[in-house]
């Protein structure tokens, strides 16, 4: 017959464990409890002197014995000190916990304890400094996973987009394209479910007002740019309004366009295509891409973030239209090389039509090194799980036995079970954190 622990004992053990967690280092609680105790001590001394004065001057009346017993005078002095001390500590802690719960109740998740929320917040605030470089949905997927491990996340995002809502705002309002930045802000927000729907919402019935196809998030950032006077301030204010955990920076504040040389599959003739949105739609093989104007200045805060990072992640994302527009900013590439962080390139799971048709992992690496040079990353992270493809248009990016690079390669299951042509944010982030913490074991060449 099993011996069941009484409920009162379980509750007592749980309360003791909770109290121990409140006293663990790093929460920033004990210092303020100490201040409260100090203030309470001063108040207690003053009140005790007041009572002592009444006790000594009071005439012998019927209530004098009550004061005597209330002050525990029959007990030894040290025992009285211990009793009143424990009563004071218990009362103060009870009041502090009750006050904290009342103040934090609007911000607590249903069923969450204050100490759990505070512990999680402190751990994330002191998490590793991670810089993610890229654009599109791949970067947003990565950020969605990273925010569960650290709040010290900085995203460096391309501003070469010229299609869709971003392109129209770029032409009509003269602002930098906000689309990729909007996706990153939504991914890093505290209430992502609501904000994703709000920021990704596209007007479908605003033809007369010129709103059809526009994203609410793009209009929001464009409006804030005009109100604050700069795109940089608009991003910062958006982050505050949306309770974003991290920072989102453009790679440059220059109004740049992406230009490509595309070789025709029919006659081998090279065509020059200008515009990020037009490049994937031009039949042929991309030979080279560059920015126009050339050598744009990097955003200074992006440079500072890269130089002080613990982990730099390049990708996932469209090779030519999301990653290279960032890396072609010379100061960005130079800062990555100069940084002492662990630098990881995340190769795409599947090829992208119009950009990387027929590419393997080594082809992705070769394109990066041809455009930016070697020494940009320490590790190539590639997917090694390739289930049967659900359609003819999806082709996996396979990894050769020996990549044409001296960088280390690490393979892992990175695919999303529901959308296998995409990365799973949880799997990808876990592998990156393991690489940072050197818990994955030896890497192979």
Relevant terms:
single chain, 445 residues, alpha/beta, Rossmann fold, seven-stranded parallel sheet, three-stranded antiparallel sheet, 16 helices, 10 strands
Give structural notes.
The protein is an alpha/beta fold. The chain folds into 2 domains: 9-124, no CATH class; 125-437, Rossmann fold (3-Layer(aba) Sandwich). Helix content is 46%, strand content 12%. The protein is built from 16 helices and 10 strands. The protein has helices spanning 7-22, 30-57, 64-70, 77-104, 114-125, 136-146, 164-172, 179-188, 192-200, 216-228, 231-241, 300-307, 319-327, 330-338, 361-372, 425-437, and strands at residues 130-134, 153-157, 247-250, 257-263, 270-274, 285-292, 311-314, 342-346, 379-383, 408-412. It has a 7-stranded parallel β-sheet with strand order 3-2-1-7-8-9-10, sandwiched between helices. The chain has a 3-stranded antiparallel β-sheet with strand order 5-4-6, covered by helices on one side. α2 packs across α4. It is elongated and about 115 Å long.
What is the CATH topology of the largest domain?
A: Rossmann fold
What structural class do the secondary elements suggest?
A: alpha/beta
Strand order of the largest sheet: 3-2-1-7-8-9-10
What is the name of the CATH class of the largest domain?
Answer: Alpha Beta
Q: Can you write the helix and strand succession as a string?
A: HHHHHEHEHHHHHEEEEHEHHEHEEH
Measured by DSSP, the beta-strand proportion falls in: 5-15%
* Rg over alpha carbons: 30 Å
Q: Classify the helix fraction into a percent range.
A: 40-55%
CATH homologous group name of the largest domain: CofD-like domains
* Overall mean pLDDT: 80
Into how many domains do the coordinates divide?
A: 2
What's the helix count?
A: 16
Low-confidence stretches: none
**Would you count the extended β strands for me?**
10
- Sheet with the most strands, sense and barrel status: 7 strands, parallel
> Rough shape?
elongated
Distance between the termini: 58 Å
- What is the name of the CATH architecture of the largest domain? 3-Layer(aba) Sandwich
């Amino acid at each position: 017959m099993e011996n069941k622990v009484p409920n009162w004992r379980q509750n007592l053990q749980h309360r003791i464990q909770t109290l121990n967690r409140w006293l663990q280092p790093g929460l920033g609680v004990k210092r303020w409890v100490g201040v409260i105790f100090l203030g309470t001590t001063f108040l207690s001394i003053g009140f005790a002197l007041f009572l002592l004065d009444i006790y000594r001057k009071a005439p012998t009346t019927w209530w004098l014995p009550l004061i005597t017993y209330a002050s525990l005078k029959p007990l030894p002095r040290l025992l009285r000190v211990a009793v009143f001390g424990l009563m004071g500590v218990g009362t103060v802690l009870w009041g502090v916990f009750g006050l904290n719960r009342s103040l934090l109740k609007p911000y607590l998740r249903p069923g969450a304890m204050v100490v759990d929320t505070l512990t999680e917040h402190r751990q994330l605030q002191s998490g590793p400094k991670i810089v993610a470089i890229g654009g599109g949905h791949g970067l947003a997927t990565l950020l969605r996973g990273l925010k569960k491990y650290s709040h010290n996340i900085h995203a460096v995002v391309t501003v070469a987009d010229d299609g869709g809502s971003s392109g129209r705002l770029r032409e009509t309002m003269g602002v930098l394209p906000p689309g990729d930045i909007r996706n990153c802000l939504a991914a890093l927000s505290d209430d992502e479910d609501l904000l994703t729907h709000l920021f990704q919402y596209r007007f479908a019935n605003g033809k007369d007002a010129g709103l059809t196809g526009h994203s609410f998030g793009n209009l929001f950032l464009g409006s804030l740019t005009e109100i604050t006077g700069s795109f940089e301030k608009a991003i910062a204010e958006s982050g505050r309004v949306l309770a974003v955990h991290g920072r989102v920076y453009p790679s440059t504040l220059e109004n740049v366009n992406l230009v490509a040389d595309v070789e025709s599959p029919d006659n081998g003739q090279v065509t020059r295509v200008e515009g990020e949105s037009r490049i994937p739609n031009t039949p042929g093989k991309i030979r080279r891409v560059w920015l126009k104007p050339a050598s744009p200045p990097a955003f200074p805060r992006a440079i500072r973030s890269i130089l002080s990072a613990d982990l730099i992640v390049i990708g996932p994302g469209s090779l030519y239209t999301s990653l290279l527009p960032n890396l072609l900013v010379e100061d960005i590439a130079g800062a990555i090389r100069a940084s002492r962080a662990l630098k990881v390139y995340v190769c795409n799971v599947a090829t992208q039509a119009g950009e990387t048709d027929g590419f393997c992992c080594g082809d992705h690496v070769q394109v990066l090194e041809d455009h930016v040079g070697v020494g940009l990353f320490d590790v190539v992270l590639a997917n090694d799980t390739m289930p049967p493809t659900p359609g003819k248009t999806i082709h996996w990016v396979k990894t050769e036995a020996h990549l044409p690079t001296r960088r280390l390669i690490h393979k892992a299951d990175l695919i999303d079970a529901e959308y296998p042509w995409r990365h799973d944010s949880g799997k990808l982030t876990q592998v990156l954190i393991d690489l940072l913490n050197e818990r994955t074991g030896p890497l192979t060449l």
